[in-house]
Amino acid sequence: MQITDIQGTVSLSNGIKMPYLGLGVYKTENGAEVVSAIHDAIDLGYRHIDTASFYKNEDGVGQAIKESNIEREKMFITTKVWNTDQGYDNTLKAFDDSLNKLQMDYVDLYLIHWPVPNLYVETWKAMEDLYKQGKIKAIGVCNCLELHIDDIIKEGTIAPMVLQNEFHPRLVQQHLLDYCKTKNIQYEAWAPLMRGRILDNPVLTELAKKYGKSTAQIILRWDLQKDVITIPKSTHKERIAANADIFDFELSVEDLASIDSLDTEERTGAHPDNFMDHFANK
């Protein structure tokens, strides 16, 4: 990944350019809150917004993009198909619903939110058809392990272009990063700041002092130097701006390794092997 500035991109396996820094809007309230956050992000130079049908704020995302003075083609919009909408026909309907809420003719990236057993392959086949129709510029998956992606590659005709997983210094999963490299799949982080739980870590606070940055900025720069797209969530303009202020320094190889060493396989969300139980208990 060649890291330049806030509007820098990486090329996916099909040649589509995806911004490596974006704004996540999970748990951002639909309406004024999400619209304001996106307007602030766009004003600061962000061109990548990540939402999902499960977030219940696609309407607000669409409104914000429509109200902005940025051409649609210059924005990169991701949304996702939720667990209860999976299967071939259900996915087609869910996609149409998302497109209508977003008030768009296409989305840049459509993802399977979680690999629902016995359904995610059929879901993928529906996404392949939507991709071939030009309604989606790129397709991928979230919260998957190697076995899920192997199934999709075996049963489908198009390999996933993106894998979005929980990723932060406590959950590196280097084996998955390496696997994605071999398959030409771009890795992307959700919860890159571990939902704030790691910001006072002594290793990170020392690095923050060394580079004159915040611990959050150290982590987000680490993401990019690990070749991982990152989509930190915030609704505060100052934090949205700070999250993008990561292009005037570079972590050393030794400091990258020290952050890698914090890995304990700790998650803030569900594990792909038991997520159905996790969401059933919500």
TrEMBL record:
Sequence similarity: Belongs to the aldo/keto reductase family.
Active site: Y55
Entry keywords, A to Z: NADP, Oxidoreductase
Residue numbers binding substrate: H113
Site positions (Lowers pKa of active site Tyr): K80
Keyword Transcription regulation: no
NADP-dependent oxidoreductase domain segment(s): 22-263
Protein name: Aldo/keto reductase
GO MF terms held by the record: oxidoreductase activity, acting on the CH-OH group of donors, NAD or NADP as acceptor
Database matches in InterPro entries: AKR, Aldo/ket_reductase_CS, NAD(P)_OxRdtase_dom_sf, NADP_OxRdtase_dom
Pfam families: Aldo_ket_red (PF00248)
Keyword ATP-binding in record: no
